[in-house]
Amino acid sequence: MIVAAEHLSKWYGQVSGLNDVSVSVPPGITGLLGPNGAGKSTFMKLVTGQLRPSKGHVRVLGEPIWGNSRLYQRIGFCPEQDAFYDRMTGREWVTALAGLHGFDERTAADAAARAIEAVDLTEAADRKIGSYSKGMRQRIKLAQAIAHEPELLILDEPLSGMDPLMRRRTVRQIKEWARGGTSVLVSSHILHEVEAMTSNILLINNGRIVAEGDVHQIRELIDEHPHTVSIRTSHPHAVARELLGDEGVVSVRFDPGGLVVETARPDAFYARVTDLAASGQCGPISEITSPDDNLQAVFKYLVKA
Amino acid sequence: MSTRPPLPAPPTFANGAIRVFSLSLSEMLWSRRTVFLLLVTGAPVFLALVARIVQGSGIVPLRVNGVAVDGASIFGMMIWVFYLRFIVPVLGVFYGTSLIADEVEDRTITYLFTRPIRRGAVLVGKYLAYLVCTTLVVLPSVVLVYFLLVPLGQVARTFMSFAADLGLLALGLAAYGALFALVGAALKRPLVSGLVFVFGWEQVALLVPGYFRRFTVAHYVQSMVPHAMPSDGVVSLLQSVLKDNPPVFVCLLVLAAIIVATLWRAANTVESREYVLDQ
Question: Least CB-CB distance to A70: which of B116, B275, B277?
Answer without folding.
Answer: B116
